[in-house]
Amino acid sequence: MVSRVIPVDPFDLVIFGGTGDLARRKILPGLFRRFCSGQMPGEATIVGAARSEMDDDSYRTFVREAIVEFGGGRHCEDGTLDEFLKHIGYVTIDARGTGGWDDLAGRMRDGIVRAFYFSVAPALFGDIAERLHNYGLATPESRIVVEKPFGKNLETARALNKTLAQHFDETQIYRIDHYLGKETVQNLMAVRFGNMLFEPLWNSQYVDHIQITVAETVGVGGRGGYYDTSGAMRDMVQNHLMQLLCLIAMEPPARFEPDAVRDEKLKVIRALEPVDYHHIVRGQYGATDTQPGYRDHVENPRSTTESFVALKCHISNWRWAGTPFYLRTGKRLKSRSSEIVVVFKDTPHSIFEEDAGRHRNVLAIQLQPNEGITLGVTIKEPGPGGMRLIDVPLDMTFADALGPEAEEVPDAYERLIMDVIRGNQTLFMRGDEVEAAWAWTDPIIEGWTRRGEVPKPYDSGSTGPDDALMLMHRDGRKWREIRS
User: Fold this and answer.
1) Whose C-alpha in 10, 197, 206, 377 is 20 to 30 A from the C-alpha of 22?
2) Could you say which residues bind substrate here (predicted)?
């Protein structure tokens, strides 16, 4: 199989927060890989913008070091990296003042796409958007890329959307969620809408339940200050898990076009029922002999912020009436794994003896670390001695099915940045989506705040609090094992 790389048009890309961690780890190495693949045109320009005092040469040194450390080291020896660095520039800028803006404006070219990546704190979004407008940097071909968090609740999300809308049209605003750029997430739409095999079965008549798990082995680390005012519900459920839920549950769009897809996702969010507090479990990881616990990390011995959430929700529409969706996410769990699991119902009648066992078809979509899709199928166990049934996977792990080229699948940020340049908003959230997600999330957070609930402790390296297991056990179900 030969993958097809389609170059994008020439562009100017400005990375506000160009010396930050996200730029160093993801954005700059991703752009380099797109350059190496031939997708980034030779006329493209990338400008880092931040408070640090640097000139072009010192920033190029910074970029070189970032790519060597996080870019896999490919193409660094044959001169490609040196060629890429010729496209790099830097402006020292004051996001809330006047310094550097005239310099930045002088570097922009007319008649091509301008993209401005806001890799900064949300508090600076409005200031930067205003200055882009005031200094004439915003053109009809301009796009802005906004990193989460998109507000902290419905009120702040509305305020942020209103601020951005004062200077940019909704068609120019790209709210980025890197989960939507993952190859398997997009393959989820291909599996659903490109195969007659699945779509007729994709409803409450045939699906028993759906699980969505995003498990991390790391703690909050250096994000303690931010995380303790956010928690897993705001940091993960309201955006990442919500988007995965929308893609798994939405109706087929009329066309694979940005607004058609996002219209269907919005319908899912608006159809979510309020969650009963008995169907929510919050947890907080404890300390081990060698590692501090959550409260130590955030330096708050009385913190009631959750590092783990599990919940059961329902979607009130004809397709999914009565089918539960189980969501869970947490830090310091046993393995790093993001997975969507569709568990189909039992056959209506089994012709086999009871000792043949109970078997179900399970479609598992693994998002990380090993992207791929498996479908569990029931077959006869080989050998004599009667009809013994076992489950075997039909496996499409990308690394196995696609060979070495699977290793060349673009990182999520690479794909999404190229979509920004193309002007394709399909994999980006619209403002009304963000507000609808907060409208569903806010009552959950307000409810446990009002009740004064304290998260359940759980051991680091476990699967979370025991109450999360009971959430499924009460329904006669169980979580799929968290596996790496």
Assistant:
1) 10
2) 178, 182, 216, 235, 331
